[in-house]
What we know:
Elements lengths: L1 H4 L5 H12 L2 H13 L3 H29 L3 H8 L4 H34 L5 H9 L4 H18 L2 H28 L4 H9 L8 H14 L6 H6 L8 H29 L8 H14 L3 H35 L3 H21 L9 E2 L5 E2 L1 H38 L8 H23 L2 H6 L2
Amino acid sequence: MEQNRGNWSSRFGFIMAAVGSAVGLxxxxxxxxxxxxxxxxxxxxxxxxxxxxxxxxxxLAEMTVGRHSNSDAYGAYxxxxxxxxxxxxxxxxxxxxxxxxxxxxxxxxxxxxTASFSGIGADKSEYFSSFISSPVEPIVYHxxxxxxxxxxxxxxxxGGIEKASKxxxxxxxxxxxxxxxxxxxxxxxxxxxxxxxxPDFSEITLKVVIAALGQVFFSLSLGMxxxxxxGSYLRKDEDLEKDAFxxxxxxxxxxxxxxxxxxxxxxxxxxxPTEGPGLMFITLPAVFESMPLGTLFAxxxxxxxxxxxxxxxxxxMEVTVAFGIDQFKWTRKKSVLFFTTLMFLIGIGASLSMGxxxxxxxxxxxxxxxxxxxxxxxxxxxxxxxxxxLFGAIFIGYIWGVPNAVKEIKTGSKFRTEKLWTxxxxxxxxxxxxxxxxxxxxxxxxxxxx
Length: 450
């Protein structure tokens, strides 16, 4: 069974895979525009503080559960305390559903790599809307993206995920730095740098803190079972404390560098920086088209985004694949093929909800009705992930017990932050995640009129 599950062959490979799971589309477009909307440098400062508190604490907690149990996310919690596998189940279900529609967006990115050379046309918004509402082409790209993910995961931990991550993540950093150099050297770029980094502390409100909280939580893929699963492939002499600092730090570094890659260019050509998904697929193509060697830099940028999306999709798939291997005793190949097929089929519905099936709406408990794509996003981001993170923190703090977790951590680390981590995992993190849950479900907004 140990051979079937696999292990990381090197610490560098594990770090690259873990960072790859955290670095995704949210780092490359969501963080820059959130910072701009919420006080610029002040938001960045709040974000960094929360990364240290929430990111480090939960990252260490999840890796500890995984390594101690040497099992998938469901089996990990169930092994430690019978009947608590449902906590990992939140993560497995989240990863499964997220990849089902995330791969659709990954397909969009692949389309834009080729479109950068062939030309997008004058009306960028019309081009994007026409493409994503098409009944066939986005599904073809979705299939290709899912296929690439499956090919990597089916090759196992060291031969597939680790090898791919060692290539993808360094390449991503290089491409990102090239984009930064081009962006900050444009005429008028300084305005975008000031917008991103100039701290306006009067802008720090409860709403800003909640926005930073949500970005930290979702950017690091906490509550998805990824770090539990990846932790289960670690050796006992791995320094979990050091890894739990390093992974969020590198993820945050990518997010901040992305701000320097995107916002100076957006401002240099007079575009609005608060476009959300449109910033990537509508505004940025127009920006690249306006600059010298724009076609080359557009292709490089979307290749960068593709690397980020693929590294995240690999980790999302591994969560469900490990579940099939450990709980159903399937071979890795069978588990990959089974879950890939299901995800692809659900993704077809998510893609069609942008066009042919746009009238098909699913009513939800918040009183709204959503298309398939948006429903999957709301269900996972607003409910399953926060619940998984909240129950995970409570489990370690009060069910398994901090002393048992500390004992596991100390097998490979001196654990210098033991006292601080104990306070954070028992009291601070559950409170913060509960605030996120209240916010995403709209309770805080109604109470405080945010």
